[in-house]
Design brief:
The protein is of the alpha+beta class. It is 17% helix and 34% strand. The strands form four sheets. A five-stranded antiparallel sheet has the order 9-10-11-12-13. The longest helix is centred in the middle third of the chain and has 15 residues, at 85-99. Bound molecules: zinc ion (2 copies).
Length: 201
């Protein structure tokens, strides 16, 4: 499902059978209701065929697989050596960087006026821009629950621990239940109305 070497998720494409997509090609992320453990997320992604398709991804795959932490999503399980050696190496590296205070993904919470560490499961809506080099990203803050819209590079999303030195921030606080408003907003994201500040992360 997720390939740590190519940093791509594999989903079904009705046209081509299979689509391999990076996080920055996701368009919407929402947790399915219900008690399933681990949680399951429904995503929509922009496909190379030009369409957008739905896909399902487990919480572990969404948040942990990009760090080489396939499977149970705990650092302890790395040591059971049941994972692929390359993934184990990635996971070990990821664990050490997190312990050193680095974070694989970050965003700027506009409501709190500060950067926050985040996992992909906090992404809400993504909209491509800049000829595919930038992404407008609506994120639900894990601390204050408000939604902020950032403008980041695709690398900021696709390469764990790569953080843009500066990111664009839309000066607007969205309520926690504002998915619809955010989607409408995403449509305007790259029009002249888009007004962002560049903030150091
Ligand atoms: Zn497709
Ligand atoms: Zn916040």
């Amino acid at each position: 499902m997720y390939d740590a070497l190519t940093t791509r998720y594999t989903f079904a494409c009705p046209d081509r059978g299979e689509a391999r997509v990076a996080l920055s090609s996701f368009r919407r992320v929402s947790q399915l209701p219900g008690p399933s453990q681990p949680a399951v997320f429904e995503i929509e992604f922009g496909c190379a065929c030009g369409g957008e398709h739905p896909g399902l991804v487990s919480h572990d795959e969404l948040d942990w697989a990009p760090l080489g932490l396939g499977g149970e999503g705990t650092f302890v399980n790395l040591m059971t050596a049941t994972v692929d050696p390359v993934e184990a190496e990635l996971a070990d590296l990821a664990a050490r960087r997190i312990q050193a205070g680095e974070w694989p993904w970050s965003f700027f919470c506009y409501a709190e006026e500060r950067p926050r560490p985040v996992f992909p499961s906090a992404f809400v809506v993504l909209a491509p821009s800049g000829g595919g080099t930038e992404v407008g990203l609506a994120v639900r803050c894990p601390v204050c629950s408000s939604i902020s819209v950032n403008l980041v590079s695709t690398q900021h999303l696709d390469v764990p621990f790569h953080n843009d030195r500066e990111i664009g921030v839309v000066e607007h606080v969205f309520a926690a239940d504002a998915e619809r408003a955010v989607e409408e907003f995403a449509d305007e994201l790259y029009s002249a109305a888009f007004d962002s500040r560049r903030l150091a992360l």
